[in-house]
Amino acid sequence: MDTKFSDLGLSPQLLKAIEAMGFEQPSPIQAKTIPAILGGQNIVGLSQTGSGKTAAFGLPLLESLKLENKCVQALVLCPTRELAVQVCEELQRLGSVLENFYATSVYGGAPIDRQIRFLKKGVHLVVGTPGRIIDHLKRKTLKLGVVELCVLDEADRMLDMGFKDDMETILDALPNDTQKLFFSATMNKNVRGLIKAFSPDAQTYQIEKRTLTVESIEQMYYEVRNRSKIEVLTRLLDMEVEPKGIIFCNTKQMVEEVCEVLALRGYIVDRIHGDITQINRERVIKRFREGKVELLVATDVAARGLDIDAVGIVFNYDLPYDPEDYVHRIGRTGRAGNHGKSVTFVFGKDIHRLELIERYIKQPIQRMKIPSQEEVEGKLADSVLLKVRDLLETKKFDNYEHMFDRLLETGNSAGEITSALLHMLKNQDSRERETITEDSEPFSSRPLKQRRKESEGGRSSRKRKSRFKRFGQSRQSYRTKDAEKSGGRHDGYHESTSKSKRKRSKLRKDKGKPRRAKGKKFEA
């Protein structure tokens, strides 16, 4: 029997908010953790990215607030500024039905005086990064004396970013009876130690999945050299109907280079990384969310801080060093049950790291063939025909028959005029193409590791065979020739081989020993 939100013990007000947001039934992590949190348990919630962890802790958090008491009663810690803003906005939408509910987000890179003004007015919920929370505690602009519930969202990521001391300081400042919730897609040993130190009685709720990634995400990889990545990227983008996606790079410099080249090729693209100011970051993310930017190039700073609908594809332009980063990167697509696509570029030694990722996510990643220039052009031509056909079906276009008649009067046929117009329309979307080395290489769908084993096995067998020919068959031919010279006898051959064997054995016995003069004895 399917669980409903009404079965989880939530108030009618929050049920209305859930219905207004379009949620029909709780996800597995929500169905397991919401009753436990409402019961006052300290919990550890482990579930894959995009499974609804924010609502899993947000709904019971809102249920526990005493709105008449205008002080900080709940605290949510996030690893990045983007995630803090995103979580705060999500909780404000869920709590929009609650009267006099106030929440704010605090994070570095933004004016602290504005945050102080919000805190002085009085808020029930604070969502922030550990560093800025510590700043407010030192300034005594944030008081945690009556906090009843604390959430650590993406706790493993916060430890990886060096927030361990800050997290321990914040947890020490909380009252002893504060309810503590730990949520993440992955959980490492350091987080286990933190939980054991501050919440030893926490119950773990893990959603067992065959894979760590969402099943609705189609994962694939292409073997492509670094110098060919841009060309392959643009080909794949042109093969997509609506290429709204995120391109992840490992360095800020690579983000800038990729963004610049894509802009020169006519794509509407922008970028975010650590050197971009917070104001510009928020502006870029807002434009991307509104659809004014179709492609976003980013470092891993955005991997866990973006929750944007309709991200159809994610590119790993550079393969991440950590398998956990791969999980969180591709988790930006395929959210809330929607279909998504993940594309990874590898070459050479990258294949070994890709194998580690496959073992980590317990799922194979399929190798795909790089589309040729002809295939891309054919796809663009098909898209032009679809656009024209859809426009004809809707009948929403101006009448230009008088101009068509003028073209007919010039002696051109209707087919020639149509071809010329379609040619112009196609050229508007066409981009400069390059011929790359990968175009002439044979393709095999088998994994690179398997192909290497087969090629190494073939080479080794050929080498063994050649050695056998060189030392076995040639020796046999020498024996045959010697036998023919000696009238069919092999005495000379056996004599020569026995002498050489005795000589080699003698050399081996004397090897490493001092030479002594023959016929002389040493006296004591």
Give structural notes.
The chain is α/β, with parallel strands linked by helices and 524 residues long. Helix content is 48%, strand content 12%. A 7-stranded parallel β-sheet has the order 3-4-2-5-6-1-7, with helices on both faces. Helix 2 (28-38) runs parallel beside helix 3 and helix 10 runs parallel beside helix 15. The longest helix has 38 residues, at 448-485. It is globular, with a radius of gyration of 35 Å. Residues 458-475, 488-497 and 520-524 have low confidence and may be disordered.
Number of contiguous helices: 19
How many beta strands in the DSSP annotation? Answer: 14
CATH topology of the largest domain: Rossmann fold
* Strand-residue proportion: 5-15%
> Structural class of the secondary structure composition?
alpha/beta
Q: Per the principal axes of the C-alpha atoms, what is the gross shape?
A: globular
Read across the widest sheet, the strand sequence of neighbours is: 3-4-2-5-6-1-7
Q: Biggest β-sheet, characterized?
A: 7 strands, parallel
Q: What's the CATH H-level superfamily name of the largest domain?
A: P-loop containing nucleotide triphosphate hydrolases
**Measured distance between first and last alpha carbons:** 101 Å
Unreliable residue stretches: 458-475, 488-497, 520-524
Rg estimate, integer Å: 35 Å
Helix-strand layout with pairing:
Elements: H1 12-20, H2 28-38, E1 43-46, H3 53-64, E2 74-77, H4 81-94, E3 103-106, H5 112-121, E4 125-128, H6 130-139, E5 149-153, H7 155-160, H8 164-173, E6 179-184, H9 189-198, E7 203-206, E8 217-223, H10 229-239, E9 245-248, H11 252-264, E10 269-272, H12 278-289, E11 295-298, E12 313-316, H13 323-330, E13 340-346, H14 350-361, E14 366-367, H15 373-394, H16 401-409, H17 414-429, H18 448-485, H19 491-510
